[in-house]
From TrEMBL:
Catalyzes the N-acylation of UDP-3-O-acylglucosamine using 3-hydroxyacyl-ACP as the acyl donor. Is involved in the biosynthesis of lipid A, a phosphorylated glycolipid that anchors the lipopolysaccharide to the outer membrane of the cell. The gene is lpxD. It comes from Methylosinus trichosporium (strain ATCC 35070 / NCIMB 11131 / UNIQEM 75 / OB3b). This is UDP-3-O-acylglucosamine N-acyltransferase. It holds the Pfam family LpxD. Gene3D superfamilies: Hexapeptide repeat proteins, MurE/MurF, N-terminal domain. GO terms for molecular function: N-acyltransferase activity; UDP-3-O-[(3R)-3-hydroxyacyl]-glucosamine N-acyltransferase activity. InterPro entries: Hexapep, Hexapep_transf_CS, LpxD, Trimer_LpxA-like_sf, UDP_GlcNAc_AcTrfase_non-rep.
Length: 350
């Protein structure tokens, strides 16, 4: 059985082309004609034809073992590069690597048709009143409901469900098994497999006589260039909209409650939870498994560390960690003091 890669090389890149795309420069002229990059690999696994990058001292051992054709690294790390490996000098090697990889393997940037099809597959179910612009691809098993609209260049994966009146912009990718209800989706949005958008939020009026379900009649609005990870859930609003701002990137397994408003350019890492009606400012970063309480406001540019529990409003540019979340320095001082109190006499720290 073949164990080849899953992504096809678009075309080989010369070292000069790779440097230009990545915003890097060749440390020295390359004598051999026809030296090209045809793949990428980790430092300690690379071989001829591969490109690697080095940006952290913890990978110094891998750099010493590198046998790649070329390596992206900072100028200060050049002396550690083994002979025979061409050096591409970049101020941010990781970012340069990402740009070059996008040129080498453009199909990996967003989910493609899993059936290698074009147009609407005979196995898809598209309501007669749905409107699809030219160039839309619909894989087998997908269901597109009445009055839905999908823009040119979008791909709807197998078993995806697009509900009634949903609008999807141009150049979007909707992964296999995703479901979109009560949603308006902008252009160039990526929604990975299994994501759920627009289901009703967890809205109940609690009482001793029983919990009364409160109808959720809002929408989910996803602006341009958003990416939503696999198995993430975004509830529709109750009496207002749930909004995901332009350019925001959401990881896998994130829960976003009803009426949440997320600003532009935010990053929300896996297993985070945002309770209903909280508001997240522009360019906020939430670490993995962080939790934001309901009806709270997180100011622009705030950073919330992984596993933090936010129980009160956070100002702009705040740096918070811990449970309950508090300024990082205060949290770390408290943890150090607690560790000292709990440690037995003479017991070394972990």
């Amino acid at each position: 059985m073949s164990a080849g890669g899953f992504f096809r090389l678009d075309r080989p890149l010369s070292l000069a082309e790779a440097a230009e795309i990545g915003g890097a420069r060749l440390a020295a002229p390359v004598a051999e004609e026809g030296v090209v990059i045809i793949g990428v690999a980790a430092l300690d696994r690379a071989h001829a034809g591969d490109l690697s990058f080095y940006d952290r001292p913890r990978y110094a051992a891998g750099l010493r073992l590198c046998r790649a054709t070329a390596c992206l690294l900072r100028a200060r790390d050049l002396p550690a590069l083994p002979p025979g490996v061409a050096a591409l000098i970049a101020s941010d090697p990781h970012a340069a690597m990402a740009r070059i990889m996008a040129a080498l393997f453009p199909e990996a940037l967003r989910p493609q048709s899993l059936f290698a099809s074009s147009g609407v597959s005979p196995g898809a179910v598209v309501h007669p009143s749905a409107r699809l612009e030219p160039g839309v691809i619909v894989d087998p098993g997908a269901v597109i409901g009445p009055r839905a609209e999908i823009g040119a260049g979008s791909v709807i994966g197998p078993q995806a469900v697009i509900g009634p009146d949903v609008r999807i912009g141009r150049g979007c990718s909707i992964g296999a098994g995703a479901s979109l209800l009560c949603a308006l989706i902008g252009d160039r949005v990526i929604i990975h497999p299994g994501a759920r958008l627009g289901q009703d939020g967890f809205g109940f009026v609690l009482s001793r006589q029983g919990h009364v379900k409160s109808p959720q009649i809002g929408r989910v609005i996803v602006q341009d260039d958003v990416e939503i990870g696999a198995n993430t859930t975004i509830d529709r609003g109750a009496t207002r909209d749930t909004i995901i701002g332009e350019g925001t990137k959401i990881d896998n397994l994130v829960q976003i409650g009803h009426n949440v408003v997320i600003g532009r350019g935010c990053v929300i890492v896996a297993q985070s939870g945002l309770a209903g009606s909280c508001e997240i400012g522009d360019f906020v970063a939430l670490g993995g498994q962080s939790a934001i309480g309901g009806h709270l406001t997180i100011g622009e540019g705030a950073r919330i560390a992984a596993k933090s529990g936010v129980t009160r409003d956070a100002p702009s540019m705040a740096r918070l960690s811990g449970v309950p979340a508090r300024p990082v320095r205060r949290h770390l001082r408290g943890e150090l003091l607690l560790d000292r109190l709990a440690r037995r006499d003479g017991e070394p720290p972990c």
